[in-house]
Amino acid sequence: MFSKFALVIATLLAPIAARAHHKPPPPPKSLRLYVFNCGSLDISDPERFRFKKEELATTNLSVGCYLIVHPKGTLMWDVGAVPDAVLKPGQKSALEGYATITETLESQMDKTGYEPEYIQYLAFSHYHYDHIANANLFANATWLVRKVERDAMFAPKPPDKVNPANYSALKNSKTVLIPTDDYDVFGDGTVVMKLAPGHTPGHQVLFLKLAKTGPILLSGDLYHYPEERTMKRVPTFEYDQQQTVATREAIEAFLKQSGAQLWIQHDYAANARLKKSPQYYE
Questions:
Q1: 4: left (phi over 0), alpha (psi -120 to 50) or beta
Q2: d(CA 87, CA 104)
């Protein structure tokens, strides 16, 4: 009887053991970018973005999460609006009535061979809830963060649009406080975090120099809708609206100078067209 019971337990635990000993793939020869579908935001009233519904192709916003794999290491950029733990198998999950996911970030990552515990670096465009929901999954990573953002996140009274429980594990994580406007993650100019304040005090964008795809810039919340860019609308809820205007001008100049594509992370239609993991850009 005991041997049969032990066999059943061993069978049940086998996948967990295999997962615990799973190793990430070997380093690639050149930079890769994996895009994960981290859900969507159902914005019923876009007035706080200074738009009427009829001015927008869609009021919905996408939520993107991104894994950058460099020959020297890995970086996770933005980690969703809804924690994985909220989603039950076979269901979709909504947060506060308008943030929805249908597949966990961790399950999407598993298809690539890269698990959260093996990610070397973690960074966010900024501290708002829809970019940091799964932060605790990456507590083993080195957190790359602007001091002003970290100070706000762990202040006695955190700012609006954050949920401290979703990133509490980062308080004791190994942390690098970024000292410069531009931070070259791997030291070769292919993965650079650029300070882009205004939306939040330490908001940043991510420049990637891909060998085949070419240079791209992940926008964070520099823009939400593509119409913001063409119609020059600034949301009402920016930390500093004038600073956002100045930052946009500087980033647009950088795009012209670098020839980079701008990927607006919340652009619902554009994000839907991107190939998702386990496919990747290189």
A1: alpha
A2: 7
Distances, alpha carbon 203 to alpha carbons 33, 62, 124, 146, 279, in Å: 21, 19, 8, 8, 28
Give pTM, 2 decimals.
0.90
* Confidence tier at 3 by pLDDT (50, 70, 90): very low
Smallest CA-to-CA distance from 76 within 170, 9, 179, 168 is with: 170
Whose structure tokens read 């500093």?
240
* CA–CA gap between residue 17 and residue 14 (Å, rounded): 5
Nearest to 144 by CA among 158, 157, 126, 129: 126
Residues 177 and 204: their CA atoms lie apart, in Å, by: 13
Sequence-distant (≥ 6) Cβ neighbours of residue 187 within 8 angstroms: 72
How many Cα atoms sit within 13 Å of 264 on the Cβ side? 18
As a whole number of angstroms, the distance between CA 42 and CA 152 comes to: 27
For 237, residues 6+ apart whose C-beta sits below 8 A from its C-beta are 48, 161
HSE on the CB side for 71, CA within 13 Å? Answer: 8
Q: Quick check: 114 pLDDT over 70?
A: yes
DSSP bridge partners of 68: 33, 75
Shortest CA distance to 37 belongs to which of 104, 132, 119? Answer: 104
95 - beta bridge partners?
99
Q: Which one-letter amino acid corresponds to residue 77?
A: W
Q: Which residues contact 160 (CB under 8 A, 6 or more apart)?
A: none
Q: Is the pLDDT of residue 152 over 80?
A: yes
